[in-house]
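Box 3.1 A note on notation
Throughout this textbook, protein chains are presented in two layers. The first layer is the amino acid sequence; the second is a token string describing backbone geometry. Keep the layers aligned when reading.
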Amino acid sequence: MKVIIMGCGRVGEQLANLMSAEGHQVTVIDYEQDALNRLGQNFPGQLIKGVGFDHDVLLKAGIETADAFAATSSSDNANILAARIARNIYHVPRVVARLYDPRRAEIYQRLGLRTISSTTWGAGRIHELLVYSEMDAVLSFGGGEVNLVAFEVPIHWQGRSVKQVTIPGEISVVSVVRNGKAFLPISGTELKPDDTLYLAVAASSIERFNAMFGYGEGD
């Protein structure tokens, strides 16, 4: 995949190295040479010094044939402008813009832009670690209304079925990992020692979840 990354701060640098390590063709744009130097002399991709929403710079980066574009600079306005140009003018199939101000996210989503807010993500992740302190919070969906959590089957649930764990609209078993292999369970699947459960849990049902699995007060 041909990927263009605008902005070579800490996020842009890590993204560029990650995509490059996976074998993608990566081009990084930044208006500061010192920022581009973060990637070092051994970086296999293309480095372009310039403004990431300038058409000449984008054309030099190969925007017309790009498969993906990520705007990761420290400026929300620059990121959104560059993302809109990539999507609306050059029709890049996959475009993502980084946002610092989560209040803008809804506006840009209505414009058809995919955004990620480090502020929202960070707050959500801290919330997960606080609320699900006894287990591993794997992923959060939407604004944190639903969370995917993973934990080993408690002793008092061993021998019971997936159906007994499921509460429609509140708690659903997504997957079971047994002896290092994951599978999709059916309602009659029996829970065994050392099983790891992956459950989708509604945030509004956390107290019921804690009571069901014996977490929280009175453990």
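The chain has eight helices and eleven strands. The two ends are 50 Å apart (CA to CA).
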